[in-house]
Amino acid sequence: MHRIKAALAATTILAGATAAAATDLEVTHWWTSGGEAAAVAVFADAFNAAGHNWVDGAIAGGGNARPIIISRISGGDPMGATQLNTGRDAEDLVKAGLMTDLTELAEKEDWANIIRPAKLLDACKYEGRIYCVPVNIHSFQWMWVNRGVYEDNGMAVPTNWDEFAGSADKLREAGIIPLAVGGEPWQINGMAGVFTVALGGTELYRAIQVDKSPEAAASPEMTRVFEAVAAARNMVDDGFVGRAWNDAANMVITGKAGAQIMGDWAQGEFSVAGLTAGKEYDCLPGLGVFPVLDTGGDAFYFPKPADDNAEIVAAQLEMASLLVSKQVQVDFNLKKGSLPIRGDIDLAAANDCMKKGLAILENPENILPSGEQSWSSDTQGQFEDLWVEFFNDPDMSAEEAQARYVEIVENAD
Ligand code: GAL
Fold this sequence. Notes:
Layout: H1 2-18, E1 24-29, H2 34-49, E2 53-58, H3 62-74, E3 81-85, H4 91-95, H5 103-108, H6 111-114, H7 118-122, E4 125-126, E5 129-130, E6 132-134, E7 142-146, H8 147-151, H9 161-173, E8 177-179, H10 185-200, H11 202-209, H12 214-217, H13 220-232, H14 245-253, E9 257-261, H15 266-272, E10 281-285, E11 293-294, E12 298-301, H16 310-324, H17 326-336, H18 352-361, E13 367-368, H19 371-374, H20 377-392, H21 398-411
Parallel strand pairs: 1-2, 1-3, 8-9, 11-13
Antiparallel strand pairs: 3-12, 4-5, 6-12, 7-9, 7-10
Helix pairs in contact: 2-15, 2-17, 10-11, 10-13, 10-20, 13-21, 20-21
Bound molecules: beta-D-galactopyranose.
Beta-D-galactopyranose binds next to loops.
């Protein structure tokens, strides 16, 4: 008996020794709000439970984080893994061969058939190889409405943009800021994109975002979008300039404002505040006009480690596999307020808003290309600058703004 115990003990020690050594991976991302932090903790916990060490490298604000992340990788100081938007952010880094190739893992785990819509994985490809793993589907096409603000003032809760716009004056009379907005460029630019679909329609959106048509950019339908954005700038408070998106969300959560147009990551804040969709707040996809989603979102990239360190690459592949796995996808997206990148999971815990989003996702006709996947970073910056200038300058007419918008589309790369 003694010999058997000794053999078992030896086997256990050997097994422990041969298990993958714990590897530290520094992970950069810009998920620093309450909801985002709760969501990214799901990833960190899963990676640590696998026996490794998630070294968190949070950098607040996408506008700050993105250039830091890109310059570190291109400058030879790579992190172990990083979040970026699904799209063209890392295009130059992938082309320069600075990212770990995930193709073998993707083929082994059949990502091509489990990740939907296919364009999410397509955005990770270069010359037929795969260099990122999409982790969620975020759409900007949402409006978040505080129900209590309307019920307490004897008003009908708006179900679409026009009803909301019609309620703005009465809200102001009740001392409520109609629209909560954060003045950061990406927020203004994102809101303008939502108006383009909700008021211009999906054909107009595609004509501009996919076909890059200057005629569509100059159309009367697009004029209506510029006029609505002009109206929206009269529905905000003076403190909107520079306000963070989650502080604007908090204005709706606490009833200081009636509504916010923001991506579904805002839902993570409502969740952390203990609010229930359909009870304390409503969510209107496509501003309740055109219930469509753009399939933006986030993907994880794994910069090549110095000397192609095999231990780090192995840990990178292990993380990529975890991020796309069923349980992690459910737990992460429920906290993030986003939709999962795979359709073969049980989302019994999904709330009313996620159920609305999943239903929209069922019909490919309802899926729009996200701006991040159509325009270069430079062109995206030009759009942002124009919308920010227009939203901040009440003397800038819709006509003047639209003329400049057409020029950007005409010269887009
Ligand atoms: C987006 C990102 C979301 C959310 C948002 C606000 O770019 O895809 O995950 O974090 O920024 O920070």
